[in-house]
Structures are given as structure tokens and as C-alpha cells.
Design goal:
Mean pLDDT is 87; it is low at 1-17. The two termini are 29 Å apart. This protein has helices at 74-87, 106-114, 131-141, 155-162, 167-179, 200-210, 236-243, 310-315, 320-332, 352-355, and strands spanning 31-32, 38-39, 41-45, 92-96, 121-126, 145-149, 186-190, 213-217, 249-251, 262-266, 272-276, 289-292, 297-299, 308-309. The longest helix has 14 residues, at 74-87. With 357 residues, it is an alpha/beta fold. The protein has a twelve-stranded mixed sheet. Strands 1-2 form a two-stranded antiparallel sheet. Helix 1 (74-87) runs parallel beside helix 2, helix 2 runs parallel beside helix 3 (131-141) and helix 3 (131-141) runs parallel beside helix 5 (167-179). 27% of the residues lie in helices and 16% in strands. The protein has a single domain (24-355), classed as Aldolase class I (TIM Barrel, Alpha-Beta Barrel). Strand 10 and strand 11 form a beta hairpin.
Length: 357
């Protein structure tokens, strides 16, 4: 999309963003970019720390964690969420990590988000460790649902992938979340060749038996070691073929919208499985996300190599309007796509654990 700027705000329809293309920070209305996408989904990483060491994410010895004083505080998070919801039109907030359950003030963070008007939909992505004892408190604080990372229900495979023998803790956490009303419980899985890919039908059957919704995600170039190779990635087409050996998959007909997962009816439905093909079948044109790292850096794309420092504004005495202007300018600069297939693509310096899922 090309633009001809006259130095004046563009007049939009009611409820539409109005943007001065020479100074996008002066916009009003929703968070809009130059391709017409509107961000309504905020992903907030609460910590870069994790108590697993998944082979496709980080080394066995872990990483150098952010110092505690660099993390956003409860008060800072509350202020940014208020600006996002009340001034920028955010309607959904997902808390991620690292492992967000490691934040002791997680219930307070969720309660602060739930108290906003209009109230956003609140979700949590977790590895499930500790969820069994924390699910009731999170539900009471206002959390709506959870996504739990689980790549295999085979104990040996799970331990090999995560470098931790904690499968039963995760299964107990999923059951507790379901019982606490955090539904639907969604299960996020990444498939690896010669490891858990062939057992994907068993994982899907487990989810069907327990009323969970499985989401299989293509491995993306976001590992700490920068060892990702497209040639060793299980693609969406391969995933469908593996699942198709046991189940009949039919593409769901309802509009997908901005959802990252393409849903497939399992054996005619109503149960579904979602496949997130970020690499082989990208959906950047419908992206509605904006991202905040645990240390207060704003990212307009998961694969962005540039960040906007909101923490410095917070701690430097900036007004809400100044923060909102910076946020709008960042989203206005969002690129058309992640560019994984471009010859000049470079993986972000930060791994997924530091960006937030």
C-alpha cells in the first residue's frame, strides 16, 4: 500500500484510526499500521525465566536472566495495560514468558487487567508446572483461559524434549485448569522429526478424551542457539499427513479472522485441532498483535529486530499521552510480514523465551 501525505491527518470512518502519516504518534482510535491492520491483541511477557529447558528453545544450562530491576513492576504493567485498553483499543491480553507462573504477583497482575474498562479477554500461556495449585487463584483473579505447552504425553519423550521429568505435573495442571473453569484448555505442541512427530495422533486423542483443544505449531527460527533449519522443521502439511493416518481432518468453514491457528474438524467434528503454520503458510496479513517484553520493550512483530523502549518512558516521567504516541508510532512502522523466506532474513537477537510467545 502506498501513501501520499499532505501533512494532515487522514479522516477516517467512525471508530477508525485517524493517522497523521508524517507523525503517526498523533493518531487517534485503534492501533493501526500502514497496511490497514489493527492491533487488538496484546502479548505481555512477564519474565524471561523458565523452569524447563526445551531443546528447541534454550540450552541445557539455561540463559543469562534479566536482572530483577529491569523487569516491569506490577504498577508499571498496570499503567501500560490501562493505556493499551482505554486509549489504544486493546481487547485481548495474553500473559506469557519465559514461564509466567514464576511471577509471584501473577494473580495481582491478572486482577489489575480484569478491573479495566472495557474488560479485556485474559489468557495465559504456560508450561503447566505449578498450574495444579495455582489454577483456582488465577481463575478467581479474572483469568479466562490457558494454553499449556505439551509436546508429548510419552514420559520419556517429554523428558527428552524438556530435559525435565515433569510430565505428570503438567497433566495435573491441565486438569486443574479445566476444573477451575479456565476453558477451553488449549494445548500447544511443537513436533520434532525422529522424536515426537509420529506420536502426534496419541497427543490429539488424549486431548479429545479430556476435552482439550490441541494446537500444533511449526517450529520457528526463535531458538537461543540460532540452530533452526527449515529442512528439519515439521510443516503444517506434514502434520496434517501424520494426523490423517488416524483421523479424518476437514477444514473448518467458519472465518479464521486474525486467529493464528487454522482449525480442522476431527472426524467430522465438533472437536477440532488447530495447526499454526507460521513458516510454511504465513498469516501476517491478518496479524492483530502487539508485544511487550518483560523488560518493557515494545515489539510490533514476533520477528522484529527493532524495539521501542517503554520502560525508559515510564521511569523517565513520561505522560500517558507520550507513551501512547510511542506505541502508535511503533505499530505504524510494522512491516508487511516476518520475512522468513527473504534472502536477507536475520533471526531476532532475542530468543522466544525473552520475547514472549
Amino acid at each position: 500500500m502506498s501513501h501520499v501525505s499532505l501533512g494532515l491527518p487522514r479522516v477516517g470512518a467512525p471508530g477508525e484510526a485517524v493517522v497523521d502519516e508524517d507523525d503517526p504518534g498523533r493518531a487517534t482510535g485503534p492501533l493501526r499500521d500502514t497496511f490497514g491492520r489493527v492491533a487488538t491483541d496484546l502479548r505481555i511477557s512477564l519474565t524471561d525465566r523458565c523452569n524447563l529447558r526445551c531443546t528447541y528453545c534454550m540450552p541445557a544450562e539455561g540463559l543469562d536472566w534479566l536482572p530483577a530491576d529491569e523487569l516491569l513492576t506490577l504498577a508499571e504493567l498496570t499503567r501500560l495495560m490501562r493505556i493499551a485498553v482505554m486509549d489504544l483499543g486493546i481487547r485481548e491480553i495474553r500473559f506469557t514468558g519465559g514461564e509466567p507462573l514464576l511471577r509471584r504477583d501473577l494473580p495481582e497482575i491478572i486482577a489489575a487487567a480484569a478491573a479495566l474498562e472495557p474488560r479485556p479477554e485474559l489468557a495465559l500461556t504456560t508450561n503447566g508446572l505449578g498450574l495444579a495449585r495455582k489454577a483456582p487463584a488465577l481463575a478467581a483473579a479474572g483469568l479466562n483461559r490457558v494454553n499449556v505447552s505439551l509436546d508429548s504425553i510419552d514420559r520419556a519423550e517429554y523428558a527428552e524434549i524438556t530435559r525435565r521429568d515433569r510430565l505428570q505435573d503438567v497433566l495435573d495442571g491441565m486438569a486443574a485448569a479445566h476444573d477451575a473453569g479456565l476453558r477451553p484448555v488449549k494445548v500447544n505442541a511443537v513436533l520434532k522429526p525422529n522424536l515426537n512427530a509420529a506420536d502426534a495422533p496419541k497427543l490429539l486423542q488424549y486431548c479429545l478424551d479430556h476435552g482439550y483443544e490441541l494446537r500444533i505449531i511449526e517450529q520457528m527460527p526463535l531458538d537461543a542457539g540460532h540452530d533452526w533449519q527449515r529442512s528439519t522443521m515439521i510443516t503444517a502439511a506434514q502434520t496434517r499427513a501424520v494426523l490423517g493416518e488416524k483421523f479424518a481432518l476437514t477444514k473448518a468453514t467458519e472465518p479464521r479472522g486474525a486467529a493464528p491457528a487454522q482449525r480442522w474438524l476431527v472426524d467430522g467434528g465438533p472437536a477440532t485441532v488447530g495447526i499454526i503454520a507460521s513458516v510454511s503458510e504465513p498469516f501476517c496479513g491478518d496479524c492483530d498483535r502487539t508485544r511487550l517484553t518483560a523488560d518493557g520493550q515494545l515489539r510490533n512483530c514476533l520477528f522484529a529486530r527493532e524495539e521501542s523502549d517503554l520502560r525508559a518512558l515510564l521511569r523517565g516521567g513520561a505522560t500517558d499521552d507520550q507513551i501512547a504516541r510511542r506505541w502508535r508510532a511503533s505499530m505504524w512502522a510494522k512491516r508487511a510480514g516476518h520475512g522468513i523466506d527473504d534472502p536477507g532474513f536475520h533471526q531476532p537477537d532475542r530468543p522466544m523465551s525473552a520475547i514472549g510467545g
